[in-house]
Design goal:
The chain is α+β, with helices and mostly antiparallel strands. It contains 12 helices and 19 strands. The strands form 3 sheets. Strands 1, 10, 12, 13, 15, 16, 18 and 19 form an 8-stranded mixed sheet that branches.
Length: 538
Amino acid sequence: MSRKLLVVSLSLFVLSGCGADAMSTGGMPNADFGGAGRDGSQDAGYFRGLLRAGQVPTADDLTLEGFLAEHDLPYTDESCDQVLCLSALVARDHAVAEGTMATFVQLAMASNVNLAERPRAPVSLAAVVDVSGSMTADDRLGYVKQGLILMVGELGPEDRLALVTYSSSARVVIPSQPVTNPAVFVEAIQALSPSGSTNLYDGMVLGYEQLLPGQDEGMLSRVMLLSDGLANTGVSDSAAILAKSAEYGAQGLGITTVGVGLDFNHELMRELAEQGGGNFYFIEDPEKLTTVFQEELDVLVTPLAHDLDLLLTLGAGYTLAETYGLAYTTDELGRAQVHVPTVFASRRGGAILLRLTPDPLAVESAGAPLVTIAYGYAPIAADGSVTERVEQVTEAALPALDEQGRAFLHPTARKSLVLWNMVQSFVAASDAYHHEGAVALALDQIEALAAYVDDANQVLADPEIAADRTELINAFARNLGGDVGEPIWHDGPPMPMGDDVRFAEDDMLLFPFGCRTAGGSPVAVLGAAWLLRRRSRR
C-alpha cells in the first residue's frame, strides 16, 4: 500500500511546563496571543454538555481551539520530500456574526517521515484520580478504570507511571516507577472504589511530587488530573490551587485536566491546563473517558525536528488582525516570528488560522500577495541525530473571487472558516442572550448561522459539519425557544480533500502543543503526524 501524506493544519497550544528537554531550548518573551488560542481545551464537550442539559452556554464555555481539535482538516502535499513542508491555504468568506467578509490564511504542514521507523519519546506520568463518592454516578469511576487500563497497555519499561487517588484525603497508590510489570498497575486500578469528598489540592500536589524524582533528561513529565466535582475539602481556593500548580510548572512539570459531569469547576480545570503545559478535556459522555488517556499519550511521542523558526511577512495593504492557535512575537520591522523548540508527532486535529485585514481603501483582487513565510528547522534523523538545517519559503496569494466575493484555495480551508463562523456566531448569540437579554437577537444569529452552514455543506458534504448542525446549532436554537429545522446538505460524495483519501483509526494528524519556560515565557512544541484515511474523531 502506498502512503500518501495528508496534513491537518496546525493548532498551537501555548501552555507551560513541558519537561527538561523543552525547557532547555529557551522561550519567546512578550509573546502576543490572539483569538481563542489561549488555553488547552481539546474539545467542545463542555459546550455540548450544557446544550444537552437545555442551557444556553456563555461565550466562555467554548473556544475555537477546542472546537477545531474535534475536527479532521486534512490536506494533501504529495510533493513534500522533507521532514517538514509548510503550506499556506487562503480562504475569504462571509463573517456571519459580523455581516462582513473575512480573509484568512491557514497554515498546514506535511512530512515525509515514516513514523513506524521512529522511536517514541519516554514519558513520566502521574494519574491523579478523583475517587470521591460522586464518582459512583453514571459509573464514572468504572469508565475511568477502563481508560487507565488502556493507558497502561500503551506504556513500556522506558516509561514511568504513578497512581494517586484523592477523596477526603489523598494517597499514593503506586509510587512512580517504570512500567515493567503492567499487571501491578492493572490490579491496583481495578481495586479503586469511591467514597468521601473532594480534596483536589492534596491530590494534585502528590501527583506533582511523584514526577520530580523521575524527571530524567529527555523524559516528558505530566500530571493527569481528573475531577467530577468542586474542591470542597482541604485547600479549595482556586487561586491557591493555581499558584501551587504554577510552582511545579516552573520546574518543568505539566498538567492535563479532565472534567466529568457539569458540576466540576470548569474555569479552574481549564486554567490549570492553560498554565500547566497540558490539555483540558470535558467528558460529556462517560464512554469518552476510555479514549482520553490513550489520546493524551499522542502529544508525548516522536520528535521530528528541532528549532523550527517561522517569519511571516504580510502583503502590502494587509495587517494581522487576529491569530487562532498561534503565539508569536514581532521583530523590528513588524513581522511576526515564531520559534518552536521541538516538533513532535501526534494524533490530533486542529488548525492555525491567521485573520488578515485589508486596508479599507484597498480592493482585494485575485493574485494579491497575502503572506510570505520563511521557515527553517533542524531535522532529527531516525537514530536521534540532528542533521543539516533546512531553509524554505512558501507564499500565499488571494485566489480568484466568486460572485459573492469569496475565495477558497482548498476545501479544508473552507471547512475551517465554517467552523470559525460557528464559534463566532455561538459567542455572539450567547452575548446577546446573557448580557443584553435579547433572545430574539440571539435566535437571529443562530438562524443566520444555520442558513450559512447549510449552504456551505451543500458543497463540502462534510459529515462532521452535518453533525454539528444537528447536535449544536439545532440544540442552541431549541434552548432559545426557536427551531432552525433539519440540515440541508448535498448527500452525494464530499468535495475531495486533496485526493479524498480516507484515513484509519491508527493514523496520525499534524498537531502542536506547548509549554512555558520556568520564567513564564511561552515556548511552543509542535506535533506533526501522518494521515492516511479519514476517520471520525468523536
